[in-house]
Every structure is written in structure tokens, then in C-alpha cells.
Amino acid sequence: MNTQEPAPTRAAVDEQKLLERFMWLSIGAAIVTIVLKATAAWVTGSVGFLSDALESGINLVAAAVGLWALKLSAKPADDNHNFGHSRAEYFSAQVEGTLILIASMVIIYTAVDRLINPVPVQQLGIGLAFSIVATLLNLGVGVALIRAGKKYRSTTLNADGHHLLTDVWTTVGVIVGMALVWLTGWQPLDPIVALLVGLNILFTGYTLLKGAILGLLSHTLPEDEQEVVQNFLDAYAKDNGVTFTSVRTAEAGRDRLVNLVMQVPGAWTVDHSHDHADAVEEGIAAALGGAETIVHIEPLGHPTRTGPLQI
């Protein structure tokens, strides 16, 4: 069976290239921030700065996996993947969430060890300067990724952007903590800040993993998009004398999937029913800004199956 799809449009190719450039931006930002934060940790001996540098290392790995997932998700359907590769982006989010969880465990362990075996920090002023520069860089890139992720419905960009913003808040907390150590001389603040950072990262990893798992389980479209679909169907049914039942929706990475039954007058020919099915598919795609819709035709009054198919 040949399941090859038509060649992607020029707009789709351009969008894919744009998303990949965003991921390369994330990779570049991660490399720079690792250097800055690792330098801050090395100069000061602070476990707080070290924990921050470790998270940026996770950012780099996650961005690289995200770039791979974006490239894979853009591949068209083939004989082994009849519905395409769009769910690869959820794999990226899972990897990122898992790496964040591992990093949080390492940070928490290091912080507890430093509480038990305290080590004084030094030259905090220089370390703070490096961390502030890294924070501003991550803030700019993180906001850009989230905006692009929402615009283009990219799970990978959205996850990576939120990870970077989490990194920003993490670094802000570290900077505040280190500044207080600098001003007060109270050394236990260093591992306490690192411990709080680890707990915050732990929660972020859990959130990313939860979202990725829901995506793999064919989670329905967001409520606002379901409402868009229903409003279109209500208007179409009123104008054309048909009825829609068994409407189902799902997300698959950047793709939207809609499956429904359209009940039509029994006197309609196959050709006429097919024309209306095409109009519904095109209308939903236009209303959502892109969607794959499957329309099953039934005669009006046909009983609607509400339970699972019995074989």
C-alpha cells in the first residue's frame, strides 16, 4: 500500500526551517550560558551557581533532542508510519522532562551534602555578574521560543522555551541568594538556595512529562479549539440540512485531528454527499488554521454508536 503524501508546500517548508532555526538559537544560548555559569561556579566555589550551571547543561541536551524531534516530525507519512511522524515532538518533551528530573536529584543531593559539609564561597561579585548576563540571554531566547511555539503549535519549542524561563527564575533565585550571602556572610544560604532550585526543577520536569504523556494518549484539542469546531459544525448543519454526531478530536504534535459522522438526507447521491464532506473538511481546516478531518457519511436518523466498536 502506498501511503506517501504529496510534497509539502513552500509555506510548510519555510515554517519547518524557521522552527529549526529557533532550536539552533536555543542550542547556541545554552552553550553560552553553560560557559558563563560554569565560570561563576568555578570562581566562587558556590554550589548554588553549580546547580544553575547543571540545569543549563540539561538545556543543551534537551535543545539538541528537540532539534532532532522537529526534523523527524516534519517527515511525511510512509509505509511504516501511515499517520506521519508528528508525535516525535512528544518524545522530545519526555526526554527533556526526564533530564530535568535527573538534574534536580543531583542538585538536591549536592545541596544537602554542602549543608552537612559547608564550604565558604569566594568572589561572589564576579559570579553574580556572569549569572546576570546568562539570565538576560535565557530570558530573551525563552520568550522567543514560547511565542513561536504557540504560533506554530510546536510542543518542542514550547517545552524548551518554558524550560529556559524556568532556568531564568532559577538563576534569579540563585542571584538573590548569593547576593544575600555576599551581604550577610551567612554561608548556609548557598546550599539552601541550591536545594530550593532543585525542588523547583523537580516540579518543572514533572509538568513537562505530564504534558508529553497526555499528548501520546491522544489528548483532545484545547477547549477553545473544540468550541471553534463545534461552532462551525452548528452553522454548517443549520445551512445545509445535515446533522453531525460522534465528533472526536485529538492533538498530535503540531497536527490537529478531527473525526466525525455527518448524517445526510437519504436521497443524496454519493457524489453530493462527498462534496459536502470535502466542504466540512476544508471549513474545519480553515477555522482552526490547519487540521486533518475524517468525515463518515450516514443517512439521517441512523442510530449513533456511542460505545466502543464490538468485533
TrEMBL record:
Subcellular location: Membrane
Occurrences of domain Cation efflux protein transmembrane (ranges): 24-217
UniProt xrefs under InterPro entries: Cation_efflux, Cation_efflux_CTD, Cation_efflux_CTD_sf, Cation_efflux_TM, Cation_efflux_TMD_sf, CDF_Transporter
Keyword Membrane assigned: yes
Membrane topology category: Multi-pass membrane protein
Residue ranges crossing the lipid bilayer per the database entry: 22-43, 91-112, 124-146, 167-186, 192-209
Any Pfam family the entry gives: Cation_efflux
Highest taxon in the source lineage: Bacteria
Domain Cation efflux protein cytoplasmic: 221-299
UniProt xrefs under SUPFAM superfamilies: Cation efflux protein cytoplasmic domain-like (SSF160240), Cation efflux protein transmembrane domain-like (SSF161111)
Keywords: Membrane, Transmembrane, Transmembrane helix, Transport
Family of the protein in this entry: Belongs to the cation diffusion facilitator (CDF) transporter (TC 2.A.4) family.
Protein name per its UniProtKB record: Cation diffusion facilitator family transporter
